[in-house]
Specification:
Elements lengths: L1 E4 L6 H8 L5 H9 L3 E3 L2 E2 L12 E4 L4 H4 L8 E4 L3 E6 L17 H10 L3 H5 L17 E7 L2 H12 L4 E9 L6 E5 L2 E3 L7 E3 L7 E9 L3 E8 L6 H8 L20 E9 L5 E5 L4 H7 L3
Parallel strand pairs: 7-14
Antiparallel strand pairs: 1-4, 2-3, 2-4, 5-6, 6-7, 8-13, 8-14, 9-12, 10-11, 12-13, 14-15
């Protein structure tokens, strides 16, 4: 339990982070939503509540909660003073989605990684996604770029929003597609019957994926995928809609496998120093092993 007397007008979530600098602003907001913050003895309900001079805040929070998050090591492909490029392993979450989650993620790794050189910046990060430029699904491996400061984050994210980033993926799908090289242009929307998934729908947002077949076995095909947009689950939804879901993608009708056979092969982007670079993550050996099966 922590408390603090306010000396100037300020948002409640900002003051909670000032009191407990190891927390992100988003996590402070969650504590408020969960009824774990009081102002002058009364339960607070809004993160944006404006405080008055001499207001007293009480936070029901034990700092050992953060200590529950284990440290992990991630393969670094490139690093400079503004950004770091990693090869994200299968099973690692990009970032938590709100509530406290005692699981190591790319975001928690990044905070600790840059914190060794810039503790002050790490502690003042506004939310638990700080530094996360784009995301890969938990089950997807491969190239990810992260920002080490706000200016770099803005520079890199702008390129994703303007679609000037070139992304290439490798995927193994069930069966054989009719065309060896084609463009899938199908809008994607959230599936109201299963909100954790998405589907092709006329009311969805534009989604475009170019693909080409690299090799085929008796029952599987390996594709190179070049998404032109970045919708959530875009590649998974597009291939499932074609009737050829990604191998291991049970969420979208794929056959069970030891992993989701989707890997971010390369990423071409202009770095904050204005140098345009392409970063690549070697295709996991399991892909070739699957394609060599009779």
């Amino acid at each position: 339990m922590s408390n603090l007397e306010v000396s100037r007008a300020q948002r409640l979530d900002q003051k909670v982070v000032e009191l407990l600098p190891e927390l992100s602003r988003a996590f402070a907001g969650k504590l408020i939503e969960q009824g774990r913050v009081r102002v002058n003895g009364s339960l607070a309900t809004k993160a944006g509540q404006k405080l008055k001079d001499n207001d007293v805040i009480e936070v029901d929070y034990d700092s050992t909660e953060l200590a529950q998050i284990p440290e992990i090591e991630l393969p670094v492909l490139y690093e400079d003073e503004d950004c770091v490029v990693i090869n994200k392993p299968v099973g690692v979450l990009t970032h938590s989605k709100g509530a406290f989650n005692p699981e190591a993620t790319v975001a928690t790794w990044l905070r600790r990684h840059i914190g060794s050189n810039n503790e002050e910046r790490t502690q003042s990060a506004e939310d638990q996604r700080a530094g996360i430029v784009h995301r890969l699904d938990r089950a997807t491996s491969g190239v990810m770029i992260c920002a080490k400061n706000p200016a770099a984050l803005s520079w890199l994210q702008k390129q994703f929003s303007q679609r000037t980033v070139k992304k290439t993926y490798a995927a193994i799908i069930t069966g054989h597609v009719a065309n060896k090289h084609a463009i899938i242009d199908m809008p994607i929307e959230r599936n109201p019957k299963k909100p954790q998934t998405f589907r092709v729908g006329i009311n969805g947002k534009s989604a475009v994926t170019e693909y080409e077949v690299l090799q085929e076995s008796a029952t599987l095909s390996e594709l190179r995928l070049m998404p032109k947009t970045g919708r959530t689950h875009q590649l998974r939804v597009h291939l499932s809609n074609l009737g050829h879901p990604i191998y291991g993608d049970e969420l979208y009708g794929g056959k069970p496998a030891d992993r989701l056979y989707l890997h971010a092969l390369s990423l071409e982007i202009a770095l904050p120093n204005r140098e345009r670079r392409t970063f690549s993550a070697t295709l996991p050996a399991s892909f070739e092993k699957q394609m060599s099966q009779p």
